[in-house]
Design goal:
The structure holds two protein chains of two kinds. Chain A is α/β, with parallel strands linked by helices. Chain A contains 13 helices and ten strands. Helix content of chain A is 43%, strand content 22%. In chain A, the strands form two sheets. A six-stranded mixed sheet of chain A has the order 6-7-8-3-9-10, with helices on both faces. Chain A has a four-stranded antiparallel sheet with strand order 2-1-4-5, with helices on one face. The N and C termini of chain A lie far apart (53 Å). Chain B is α/β, with parallel strands linked by helices. In chain B, the strands form two sheets. Chain B has a six-stranded mixed sheet, sandwiched between helices. Chain B has a four-stranded antiparallel sheet with strand order 2-1-4-5, covered by helices on one side. Chain B is globular, with a radius of gyration of 21 Å. In chain B, 45% of the residues are buried. Classes of the chains: A alpha/beta, B alpha/beta. Chains A and B meet through α8, α12 and α13 of A and α6, α10 and α11 of B.
Amino acid sequence: MISIKGLSFIYNDTKEPALNNINIDINEGEFVGIAGPTGAGKSTLTLCLNGVIPHFLHGDFYGEVKVDGKDTVDNGCAKIAYSVGSVFQDPEAQIVSTRVEDEIAFGLENLNIPRIEIAERIKESLEMTGISELRDYSTSQLSGGQKQRVAIASAIALRPKILVLDEPTSELDPKGSLDIFDTLQRLNREYNITIVVVEQKIQLLSEYCSRLVIMEKGNILLDGETRSVLADQETLQRIGVSAPPVTRLAYMLKKEGLYQGGFPINVEEAYLMVSKVLSEKSR
Amino acid sequence: MIRINNLSYRYKNGNNVLKNLNISIKSGEFAAIIGQNGAGKTTLLKNLNGLLKPTNGHVLICGLDTSKTKTSVLARKIGFLFQNPDHQIFCSTVFDEIAFGLKNTGISPNEIESMVYNAAKKVGLESYLKHDPFSLSKGQRQRVALASVLAMETDILVLDEPTTGQDYSEGLEIMEIVKELNKHGKTIVMVTHDMELVAQYAKRVIVLMKGTVIEDGTTEEVLSKEKSLAQSNLKPPQAYLLAKKFQKQGFFKNTYTVEDMFEEIISYLGGEQNACND
């Protein structure tokens, strides 16, 4: 679904590449989380997926990016928008209409979708994101989490095969963040939409993503099944990426030679680990 | 240090955001204010620095009533660090940025220079004074913003989501500096959603919901109020939930960070391990 070969990008007026020879393939239906310290190139990578780079942000572009079979250099942003939906950090910056319904219609009108179909798609995308009751709301009266879900609904109204999100929960409280990831999970599982999400909250990524990509200074450092990536605590701590607290506990216990099993990511798994460690005393 | 008596605040559109709040924060406390989006946290903060004046009731900062005190006077008592440092920074060198608040106070240039240096040193940026703040990383810019607040040498420091928008290690750096300041007696009030941060640093937690205080107590007490937290869309941190599962067996009492759990496991297993080593 996404194929990136030898991608490097240097923004105009900078010397250091923001992306440095990136190679990654993402299959249809994957739910991929991207994490890494600031300056890792995470946002730049998302901008390469929706064609904003190289069409709107300029610089030296090397390599090849294909989304849904389309080369992002040969195809303009509008064509890519049929395949890739984008959601950014700050929904305020993305929402342009005063009513929720109009906001979702906006992108569709720009793509010349017939009127009847627009109505259908609005209904469908509101249902898919679980916010049907917000249809007639004014966008200014929505909470941050609701706004972010309206932004997601607008993106999926275009029926993209891929949804790319850059820190969609950064302004949200814990419940709002969970709602977003529940929505993404639903889109992924029920509609087979490929999800690529940049997120600082590693605990959310560990609970929802099947695959984790860790970036640093324009490079991909780790790429694999979520748990195996989290197991590389040495690399993660070195570059300053957090881990779920219970995963950190496992790492501390392992370093002391007190625990040999797999890395837990939730409280239930950690309970088994700590029980085992404590039981060593009575032996 | 901070006294909030029957504080109510109503916006012009009639929205009653704060309802009859009573909070008193003593010198040297490290208090976290938590609550869901829209609970009134930001409105409360704006009432602390005099940006908003109470509709009813009083806010006293070091004994000064905010509705009768100039904000410039309050600014010598209570410093604010906001979420996004870029909204706070506007000078072309780190030195000027840190010195900005001081220049408006009539302090002599020599004294300003040493105050700026001291503040920069506290955040580890004393060798960056001639740099343009925007040539620094976001984490460093947040520390510049912190230094300019510290330069004012206020007794109280208020942090609004101090780690949001930064990566994990940058956030940690800021919090470790704040922890050190608190150790030396500075009163800290922190608004956050991050329960791990609360568990790790705050000693007192105040939960706001729909403009009222629904919990106020030690971190330990408030983390155990799962019902109130759930009402506020908050969840106790992982380590707290894990520790609780072992409390019937007598382990991890008053423990809410994995670091503390680790220490306890080590000392529990310690006796036997030493025996093995012999």
